[in-house]
Amino acid sequence: MRGPNGRNRDNYKDEMIRVCIRMRPLLAPYEDEEVWNADDKAGAISTLSHAVGHNASYLDVSSMSSASLRERDLRRRYSEITSQNFKFDNVFSQEINTQKIYHTVGRPITQSVLDGYNGTIFMYGQTTSGKTFTMLGSPESPGVLPCAIRDVFQGIKRDTENDYSVWISYLEIYNEQINDLLSPGTSNLKIKEDPKYGVMVAEAKKQQVWTFDQVIILMNYGEEHRIYRETSIHEHSSRSHTIFKVYIESIPKNDEAQRIRYSCLNLVDLAGSERLSEYDSKTDTVGETGHINKSLFILANVINKLAEGKSSHIPYRDSKLTRILSQALGGNSLAAIICTVSPAAMNYYQTLSTLRFATRAKSVHNKAKINEIYEENELTEQFKGEINRLKQQLSQYREEMATKDQAVHEMRKGLLEYKQEAGTLNNELNSIRNLYESERQKSQVMEMELSRTIENSALQNTDLTDKYQRMLDRLQDEKSSKQILQRELEQNRVMGAGGYNPVGANRDTNFLENLLFYIDSIVATSAEGHEDEQGNPEPYVDDETLKIWSNETQKLNSTYKIELLTLQNRYRDSLRELCRTYIPQFDKEISLFLSTTNSHNPLQTYSNVNVQHLLNLFNSGKIFSDIQTDFSAILSDYHQGTTRPQTKNILVVQLKNHNDIMVSQLEERFESTRMALEYSFREQVTKPLDNNHDNDHTVSLTNLTLEHHQKLKQLRGQYESMRKEVEQNYFDAVKLLGDGEHDQQGNFNHHHHDLIDGTGQYESLQTRDSPLKEFKGFDER
After folding, report:
1. CA 577: distance to chain centroid?
2. HEC states along 34-80?
3. In 161-285, where does DSSP find H-type helix?
4. Residue 428 and residue 430: Cα distance in Å, rounded?
5. CA 43, 46, 47: angle at the middle one, nearest 5?
6. For residue 342, which of 697, 678, 21 has the smallest C-alpha distance?
7. 305 vs 263, 311, 647, CA distance in Å?
8. What is the DSSP string of 745-758?
9. For residue range 661-688, what is the model confidence (pLDDT) as tens digits?
């Protein structure tokens, strides 16, 4: 029965890759214990029962006097072997010779090749597992390759109906380069597509042969040029993949159709995978091993994707090995894989990896067909059909080109119209530009006239500006006097409070802090810098350096305070010991006195309730929330345009007095809160020092100091924010009374700012006992 091209449908074969396992004997003295068992009849391979578990006999390394330390380490690594069981098409134990393996696996493929099918036989396994021996064999025990060549020529001799032609080529893939073993020196060959045989190697030598002996001579010649290396357990280890190709063509002696059949037999000996950490090499084979393992990994990846049957893309092109053998992997070829394994315990995981690869390969489908072509009549009909198909395509292409030419013509016509429209729009744009330039000149003239009007208005308001200037000067003088009186009153009150002087008590603690404040004042005074040669302002110190200076001085001040407290407590304890030694009768009174001096602090007059209340308000962010900062009550009676000048003067005085009251409230609240924070900080710092654990709590004291500095900085920020708010409200109120006239010339703003500076409020803030004196505060002042 014939198919659509006149071919027999029975010429197609849909088969799985045939997978077989061959187990080699142990290699003495490197291997001394078997853990795998091959069952020929059941076609199964499994781990031996006595080898499973932790107490396997091969773990007794004390009896291995001849084994190297490296081999002992390997046995210890594989100390736990789990039960494994695999089944394959065929399993061959150590007693089975290569000829029987070929008759079972290879001969059916060789006979199919003579019928026109492509065929491939792989040798796969770890290094030293017996792949090359199984492929080539020896004169006494021929391998798969000599047996296959013998069957080819015997089959040709028996066939009296066809004339045969045979060619061979021998290729090597070493470090991802294709070399021709029949033509030494020909290397790095390229891969191309052939219409007859599919993927081919360009410029590879194809030698025609007629006898079995010729092929064996050429095989030995190629083996002499193949790359081998010596390893610690194998003196002749192959370092490359080899592909022995046999091309066969047959023509019937008496056939009018002139049928030609062609096929290719691939005999592939793959280099073995290995782990450099387990086998010592006597030469530098790291690069070779990397290329070998990479190509075998890609081969396994191709097998996996073919076995899954879900991927539309198979990565044949990722390596030259899979590219050349793409027909044998899921394509037009019959295929068999002979996996060689070792039964030794030290090779347990390599054997397990090989068996898993073989299991996946069993699921790969190949669709082989007889490769044949027909000459004369049938071939001519095929060509005519192909010519007619090409003519139809050419006609379609011409119609499409005509349509495209028409579209191009329309596009050119539209482009010409667009250019004309663009020219018109460009003219309109030029007109708009000219109109804009004319309007811009008119606007400049109007701006000049407006500037002259503003200058005239400024001259007219000079008298009013002088009047408010004198008023602000009086406010400044009165506020300065009040500040001086407040300071004197505060000093007198402190000096008279029970003989305890907080300033004197903190003199030693604030010694370094006062020095830093004096230095900061000098830097802040010259913060604006000087002028360079071109007259441009140039600061003496840049902002980044000032920031670093501030951080370092803060750390120094904190360390000073901690060390000073530590020193004071140490001497106080020493004094207490001296009292107990020499005047023990006064120990009770002296200890009580020393304890009270230890806890004494500037806030002793504050009750714990008041301190805790202030701290709670500070932590909740409401420390200044009850202080009013607006002047709306005073300005409620002011009506712009109708209020008399005498009334304005009264309102100005009221605004000034109210501003002084709010500033005093803010300063008092700031000072009491700051003292509460200092009291809380000293309480926390002195507690661990009284327990004589100062060395163990250095890190804790440092953290407390940094936290205390952060709270003081937060308090100062809230205070300055409230001061600015009061200042702005006061400024807006005075400006409202002046009808906003002075702000246009900048005179009123200038004197108002001088008034705030002249009060000394910011300066008073900076001189308080706070460890945070940043340059930013001086710049804002």
Report:
1. 63
2. ECEEEECCCCEEEECHHHCECCCHHHCHHHCCCCCHHHHHHHHHCCC
3. 212-224
4. 5
5. 160
6. 21
7. 27, 6, 98
8. TTHHHHHHHHHHHH
9. 888 888 888 988 888 888 888 777 766 5
Extract the tokens encoding 560: 């000073």
- Measured CA to CA, the distance from residue 393 to residue 699 in angstroms comes to 87
Quick: pLDDT tens for 253-265: 876 656 788 999 9
Q: What is the mean pLDDT of residues 218-245?
A: 83
Tokens of 574: 């020493």
pLDDT of residue 444 exceeding 60: yes
How far apart CA 398 and CA 419 sit, in angstroms, is 32
Instruction: Specify the pTM.
Output: 0.49
Q: Of how many residues is the chain composed?
A: 781
- DSSP single-letter state for residue 26: P
Structure tokens at 554: 């803060």
pLDDT digits (tens, 9 = 90+) for 50-76: 666 544 444 454 544 444 555 565 556
Q: In whole angstroms, give the CA distance from residue 567 to residue 555.
A: 18
Paired tokens of 716: 């100062």
Measured CA to CA, the distance from residue 282 to residue 301 in angstroms comes to 31
d(Cα 111, Cα 102) in Å, to the nearest integer?
Answer: 12
* Token pair recorded at residue 173: 């893939």
Query: Around Cβ 467, how many Cβ atoms within 10 Å?
Result: 12
pLDDT digits (tens, 9 = 90+) for 38-50: 988 888 999 887 6
- 188 three-class SS: coil
**pLDDT level of residue 654 (50, 70, 90 thresholds):** confident
- Look at residues 206, 145, 172 and name the one whose alpha carbon lies nearest to residue 320: 172
Q: What is the pLDDT of residue 3?
A: 36
Mean pLDDT score of the chain: 77
Closest CA to 771 of 717, 684, 712: 712
pLDDT range class, residue 23, cuts 50, 70, 90: very high
91: helix, strand or coil:
strand
Which residues touch 777 (CB under 8 Å, ≥6 apart)? 716, 720, 762, 765, 766
CB of 336 within 8 A of CB of 109?
yes
Q: Find the DSSP H helices in 608-696.
A: 608-619, 632-635, 645-690
- The string of DSSP codes covering 422-440 is HHHHHHHHHHHHHHHHHHH
Alpha-carbon torsion 651, 657, 659, 665, what sign?
negative
Using DSSP bridges, classify how beta strands 18-23 and 334-341 pair: parallel, antiparallel or unpaired.
Answer: parallel
Could you give the CA distance from residue 485 to residue 476 in angstroms, rounded to a whole number? 14
Q: Both tokens of residue 690?
A: 């009284």
Distance CA 351, CA 83 (A): 13
Q: Which residue has the tokens 């075998």?
A: 296
**Are the C-beta atoms of residues 740 and 749 closer than 8 Å to each other?**
no
CA angle 536, 748, 652 (to 5 degrees): 150
Query: Minimal CA–CA distance to 116: which of 32, 196, 217?
Result: 196
**H-only helix segments in 461-542:** 462-495, 502-505, 511-525
What is the DSSP track for 116-181?
T--EEEEEEEBTTSSHHHHHHB-SSSB-HHHHHHHHHHHHHHH--SEEEEEEEEEEEEETTEEEET
The confidence score (pLDDT) of residue 539 equals 61
Let me know if 188 is exposed, middle or buried by CB neighbors in 10 A (0-12, 13-18, 19+). exposed
Q: CA-CA distances (angstroms) from residue 285 to 240, 346, 347?
A: 12, 22, 20
Region 334-361 average pLDDT: 92
Residue whose entry in the numeric block shows the structure tokens 């290569």: 98
What per-residue confidence (pLDDT) applies to 517? 67
Rounded average pLDDT over 436-443: 89
Query: What mean pLDDT is predicted for residues 574-603?
Result: 69
Of the two residues 33 and 149, the one the predictor is more confident about is 149
Q: How far is it, in rounded angstroms, from Cα 587 to Cα 593?
A: 10
